[in-house]
Amino acid sequence: MKKNFSLYIIIIPILAVLISIILITIHNIKELNMTAQQDIKEFTENYLIEEKTKIYNKVHFFSNIIKLKFDEFTAEQRNFIKENAEKINYFENYFLHNHTNTYPKSEIKAPILKKMFKNDYINIIIDLNTNKVLLDEKNLFKNKNLNTLTDSNGVKLINTKREYEQFLDIEIEKVKYLFYTEKLKDLNLLILTGNNTKKLNEEIKKKVINSLFYFDTESSYYIFIIDLFNINGGERYGKILLHQGRPSLSGTYLNDTDKNNEMEKYRKEYLKIIRDTGEGFITYNYVKPDTNSISKKLSFFYLQKDLNWIIGSGFYFDDLESKKQEFKISIERKIKESVKTSLFVGIMLILIVSVILYFITSKINSLVNNYATSLSESNENLKKQKDIFETLFKKSTDGIIIYSEDGLIVDCNDSVVKMLGYNNKLRIINKSLKDFSPKVQFNNELSISNEKLFKEVSFNNQTYNFEWLFLSKNKRKLFCEIRTTKLNLDEKNIIHAVIRDVTYKKELEEKTKRQQVMLAEESKKSALGEMLTMIAHQWRQPLNNINLLIHFVRDTFDSGKFTKEELKGITLDMKAQIDYLSNTINDFTNFTNPKKEATLFCIKEVINKTYNLAIAQFEKNNIKVFIDAEEINVYGVENEFMQVILNILNNAKDELLEVEKNRLLFINAKKEDGKLILTIKDNAGGISSKVISRVFEPYFTTKHKKNGTGIGLYMCHEIIKQYKNGTIEASNVSFYHENIFYEGAMFTVTLDLD
Q: pTM of the prediction?
């Protein structure tokens, strides 16, 4: 009998392990397959979100590029028109100083000046002595009364008070023209050179489109641009200006009137989206460029309102299917590997169990012999534990209830009776939680609904925590924490629930929350006041000086000792203070209203202007700024260069706020080998080596979204690269200042000065 018993002890566990391994393996395979389907579904959803984000960002990026290019070519075109007119002024000075003996001034008229014009523009010459048109090849002013002809502002063209050397918009026969006017003073001639505004705009659009051919893009995410003539559709409602995926379509006119062409029905859809919202996504079938087969496609369309262009990009669902197949194959491979691992582990487990059981059976007999003695001792211990449990149940300071599967309280201790305000527990037993609760709980749910949830969760979990709102006998609300433990007593499932009154704690939390809200409001007011203080900081001293001078004039004038020289000196002093305030306004105005016209500016003045805009921020945060700049002239757009410097200064300021003391910023500009070398460095510890190579990428930022968009340094890079051999680089540097060692980041701008 003992031998059979030992044999059973060895064989039965091994069979149980073997069967368990088989069942677990089968179950795992089913679970893995179900999980794989869910993973594929999530992969598909994430892929679509990523692709939609890509084409959305790409279209808006191209929209911004188009805006920049349009402004750039508009400025360039106006410059060409101006140069055409200014050549005449140069010719006049040169001719009069060198050929007045050969040709009298009266003969230097239209036939001679005509040779100086470019044939690309409309050129008109008017003799201001007689108000007659000497040159008008297009006959625009034919039969026109020059004395009544006005520009778009209603100012007469021939007007002694008019300022020439500027651009004018003139409408002739309902056609708008843009002219630059130049007056030849010695000859008293008025030169107008320009062209049809519509034609000029078409030339700019053409240049913009040509410039976009240089932008590389992936074949799967090509850009297309449509010139929209009629937003309501119809015959020739638009024209394809650019199609990177199929260049042959460029110049094709579009219509949405072909009802039999399934591929063209999508045009009505995107035109409706453009009319309704200006942008949106649509799904349709279209010819895939690399296969010439019709495939399902998702595209994003955006209306560039300034030019009335539709910009779009999209992707094909064929790519999604191939990605899904690759993902599915990788999951199947993982499932096979998991099954192999499970079988190997199972075999090893059987071997280990067999060896262990062999040694265990040798001790089984002695354990069986001692079992009877141990059992009697255990029964005695259980009785003692029961007595202890009953004592803890009755005397516990926390409330304790025993809750049945029928949803009734079958027992409770004295703490619960006292908490609810009753005399004995008979008033509580055989009732449910809702009988001692308000109709609605603190979460605005009905108590009866919450009790159903309490019952369901408690009986399906070994332990669980709840919050509950009780109502005592005297109608006082009690916020309580309940910790439930599922037990089996006399072959019945019950819930042992420990109840703790946390009403005082809840009231304290609510009070704390109200105080935090008040502190937050005060913090906002303080921040607003601090901002206004920084803005007023730069103006306070000049205003005080002006106030003192006014009082001095008043007091001195009344005494009768006020001289003309003193009045003149005080007036000049007050004017200097007012000029300082005016210059501050001009610096802010010039920066916030940037001009695109290139001029010759001094780099030292630009650095000082930019720093003055942000000086309050640096002074407030105890940041010492050291400027060492040479008098170097640079030809470019001054306000854009200010933007580059201000972006770098703001980034440095944000990083320096993390430095506890000795916050330092160094700005240096010098000329070296015909180049401008501008460096801005700080002692904020430098940029992480993991991200330093990406700081000039668009939309990349190490700040929280609310503090940074990731476009600032990218725009710096785009502005600087427009200069000849212009570069901007970020690096980490270490240096000494006043015999103290520091580490930080340095931005270096380099460009040719030729």
A: 0.41
